[in-house]
Design a protein that fits this description.
The protein has 318 residues and is mainly beta. Helices cover 3% and strands 56% of the residues.
């Protein structure tokens, strides 16, 4: 079946070449969006006493920046990254970034967050929630507010513990349907526990269609369709329907369109990726005409004759 499927997307390009023309109207180049400068220093953090914390600025669309870090109003550093220790309690962190805004005056933007230093687990709790049809998520809280509590780990059904990220969040991998128990630990002490239920759902989504924006006649094309099981049961059978439409002659209906349907047998578990490879050579000429044209490639995924996902990509033979 995969040999047949090799021709689904890109072979379709050559099947409507008789309708194609190498002459296309020039399209005006769209106006580029204005780049807005921004700075981030991450989430509020909760840290055990005597631990060092890395303060780091992430900037976008900023030229020649200078940095000014302040803790509780006091200057503590002027580098983009800063390793710092703090005393017990809550500290207000502010970063001011001054930069060249291509005018006569420099511009300054700021970012703020809190760092809380603790010496007990009092006040640390966990929020848990459904992330997707087959994933469950966890978020650390401190005294009722979201905060990244460094070092918290979560175990699900006695699995290998997952450590929360810098913002205190973590989610499971794709899970099968059923009931699960979890517990959270901080510094080898259990701080929270509970259960959650993953409902039985069959689903399959198009994660990506790896098609280049353009190809040249005579080139070898290597591409793929990437699917992901976003449900909570294994996917054993599915159907892929691909439609290729020549945009310049879409008004001619079926003459400017080709459709292909291919059935697949597989065993894709929850959260797993399934790749369908595509490889072919675009001919330099078809019936004496050099391939050229702009196309919409529409991919539909079917489970038990029901459409579960659709994705459209665009390509061109130049």
């Amino acid at each position: 079946m995969k040999k047949q499927y090799i021709f689904i997307i890109l072979a379709a390009i050559t099947l409507v070449l008789i309708l194609s023309s190498s002459i296309f109207k020039n399209q005006e180049k769209p106006e580029e969006p204005k780049l807005i400068p921004s700075v981030s220093i991450g989430c509020d953090r909760v840290i055990w006493e005597d631990s060092e914390e890395l303060l780091e600025a992430t900037i976008k669309n900023i030229s020649k920046p200078s940095y000014e870090w302040k803790s509780d109003g006091t200057l503590i550093g002027t580098d983009q990254k800063l390793l710092q220790k703090f005393g017990i309690g809550e500290h207000s962190i502010q970063l001011n970034v001054t930069f060249d805004n291509q005018t006569t005056d420099n511009q300054t933007i700021s970012a703020k967050k809190s760092i809380i230093i603790i010496n007990s687990a009092d006040g640390i709790t966990l929020d848990n929630y459904e992330v997707s049809k087959n994933q469950w998520g966890f978020q650390t809280m401190f005294k009722g507010k979201k905060a990244g509590v460094k070092g918290v780990t979560i175990s699900v059904n006695s699995s290998k513990p997952l450590e929360v990220n810098s913002c205190g969040a973590v989610s499971t991998k794709g899970l099968f349907s059923g009931e699960y128990s979890w517990k959270a630990e901080y510094r080898s002490k259990e701080i929270a526990s509970g259960t959650f239920n993953i409902k039985e759902i069959t689903d399959l989504k198009i994660d990506n269609i790896n098609v280049a924006p353009s190809y040249t006649a005579g080139s070898v094309v290597k591409s793929k369709i990437i699917l992901k099981n976003t449900g909570s049961v294994s996917v054993k059978e599915f159907t892929v329907k691909t439609t290729a439409i020549n945009n310049n002659f879409a008004w001619m209906g079926d003459k400017a369109k080709r459709e292909y349907t291919d059935k697949h047998n597989a065993d894709i578990k929850p959260g797993e990726i399934y790749e369908i490879p595509i490889e072919m050579t675009i001919p330099e000429k078809v019936s004496g005409i050099r391939p050229s044209g702009k196309y919409d490639i529409i991919v539909n995924i079917f489970l038990k004759d029901q459409t579960v996902d659709t994705k459209t990509v665009h390509t061109e033979v130049i």
